[in-house]
Amino acid sequence: MTQPIPLFSMQAANAGVDVLEPIRKVIESHWYVLGREVADFESEFARYLGIDHCVGVANGTDALEIALRAVGVGPGDPVITCANAGFYSSTAVRAIGAIPVYIDIDPATMTLSPARLEEALTHVPARAIVATHLYGRLADIESLAEIAAARAVPLLEDCAQAHGATRGGRKAGTFGTISAFSFYPTKNLGAAGDGGAIACRDAALAQRVKQLRQYGWGAKYKVELAGGRNSRLDELQAAILRAKLPFLDQWNQARRTIARHYNAAFAGLPVQLPACDGDDHVAHLYVLRTRERDALRQYLEGQGIASEIHYPIPDHLQPVAAGGAPPFALPETEAACASVVTLPCFPGLTDEQAERVAQAVRRFFQREESR
After folding, report:
1. Structure confidence by residue, pLDDT tens digits, 156-183
2. Is there a contact between 49 and 180 (Cβ–Cβ < 8 Å)?
3. Which CATH number belongs to the domain containing residue 15 in this structure?
């Protein structure tokens, strides 16, 4: 019997990494919160990114929220973001009591459109902008950063899916005012549970982040900043991330290799393929677009191949967001959410498995053409 192909395999992705020894060291140290492992990971990840400051937090959503608070976002403030990235930035914005203002995406990259951003900033007194590097691909971040700087609006990079993506010698998380990372286990750099980090160049901003992640303390038991919380990356997760960080670039290359294999196999099919050729795409997810999404997913399931939709419901159409139309039309966002489908793409996916996926997709469209 042919073995099913999962969307992601933790066992395959983590093969060859010894996490037991780092865990043992932490257990034997009897220091589990904000100790040496967290400090060392923060330094090592900052050095990897090529940025001055990194602050570990409990998870990626906290990273977004704390970063927004650190740049001064408060209740009632408009925050410009996209609506096709799983409601994560919306969750952070709404947790503060701020107002998410959705603008449309570029249909080719499915990331925030610079043209739409420029248009929105003429109408919206935005307190911040969240640019998501979706599926592992850098947004047009240089243009977004230039527009944000011209308006003196802080730009937050959501790098939860883009660890190590590089353009012009600069990595994701180093273009904007501040950046947020998630280390959820399926990420390109994943922990053995939840974890996150915030990166920036400004020392005063980093200090605000450190205070906000621990109750808003300026000194122990002295609360100086409103909006603080308990959001600390723990020693066990930091130790695991330290063990895995040296593998990140080769894992990213493995993901790119699979994505390129798919792109070559799907050339000529009636689908929109992701651009996975450069270092600015680390193929966190391999996402193509097709009008036949549901039928394709059903066919793949019958072949023992997992697939998923990232993400099926735009943020402005979520039940919790009901009650009014967004200020800007979002046709490209809605079209993307209606057509995207994710195929297996992770380190440890074998050549044979990748070929099985490719052949199954080709057979599906050949069947459709012959009908």
Report:
1. 999 999 999 999 999 999 999 999 999 9
2. no
3. 3.40.640.10
pLDDT at 276 (0 to 100): 84
On whether residue 1 sits in a domain, the answer given is no
Question: Distance (Å, rounded) from C-alpha 288 to C-alpha 167?
Answer: 22
Among 246, 265, 289, the domain-final residue is 246
In a shared domain, residues 290 and 276: yes
Residues in the chain: 371
pLDDT for position 371:
62
Radius of gyration of the chain (CA): 21
Q: Does residue 4 fall inside a structural domain? A: no
Full residue range of the structural domain in which residue 20 is found: 10-246
User: 79-118 pLDDT, tens per residue?
Assistant: 999 999 999 999 999 999 999 999 999 999 999 999 999 9
255 and 285 within one domain: yes
CA distance 146 to 148: 5
Q: What is the 3-state secondary structure (H, E, C) of 14-40?
A: CCCCCCHHHHHHHHHHCCCECCHHHHH
User: Percentage helix, strand, coil, to 5, in the chain?
Assistant: 40, 15, 40
pTM over the 0.90 mark:
yes
Nearest to 271 by CA among 347, 365, 194: 365
- Identify the domain boundary among 246, 272, 300: 246
Q: Is residue 22 pLDDT above 70, yes or no?
A: yes
